[in-house]
Amino acid sequence: MTDAEIKKALEQPWGLNQMMAVAAVKHCLAVYGPIVNVCARWVVSNWSEFSPETRDCIQYEVTKALEADELHRAGPGSGLDDKLRSLVMIRSLWMRKERA
Predict the structure, then answer these.
(1) N or C: which end of the chain has fewer CB within 10 A?
(2) Is 94 exposed, middle or buried (0-12, 13-18, 19+ CB in 10 A)?
(3) Whole-angstrom Cα distance, residue 45 to residue 37?
(4) CA distance linking residue 42 with residue 31, whole number of Å
(5) Under a CB-based contact definition with an 8 Å cutoff, are residues 16 and 1 in contact?
(6) 85 Cβ contact partners less than 8 Å away, ≥ 6 residues apart
């Protein structure tokens, strides 16, 4: 990629190869609090705009996080319940398609 192509790609809403969308999801997988729900709603709202590769990356990261959550579930009130609901909201994007 030339410098001009990289500059143009970085000006796109989700950055070069839509990495900012994946970075936002990965960040939210590592934190707790309201940002997780905001990120989940943002992903749901923009899902159709992401490339198949970006959706695959997000699907992989969310699936991995949900599997880890099942293994290391903490009690209610730990912040994990809100995070889990947000991850399930994102997962529903591809689960609906698989059921159809």
Answers:
(1) C
(2) middle
(3) 12
(4) 16
(5) no
(6) 37
Domain presence at residue 52: yes
DSSP conformational letter for 51? -
Among candidate residues 69, 21, 14, the one with its CA nearest the CA of residue 43: 21
Q: Is residue 93 part of a domain?
A: yes
Q: Is residue 8 a part of any domain in this protein?
A: no
Residue 4 lies in a domain: no
> Is residue 76 very low, low, confident or very high in pLDDT (cuts 50, 70, 90)?
low
Handedness of CA 32, 35, 37, 40 (dihedral sign): negative
Q: How many domains does the chain have?
A: 1
Q: Which two tokens stand for residue 88?
A: 């399930």
For 51, the domain range is 19-99
Q: What is the pTM of this model?
A: 0.66
- Write the pLDDT tens digit of every residue in 22-65: 999 999 888 878 888 899 999 999 999 999 999 999 999 999 98
Provide the token pair at 19: 């990495």
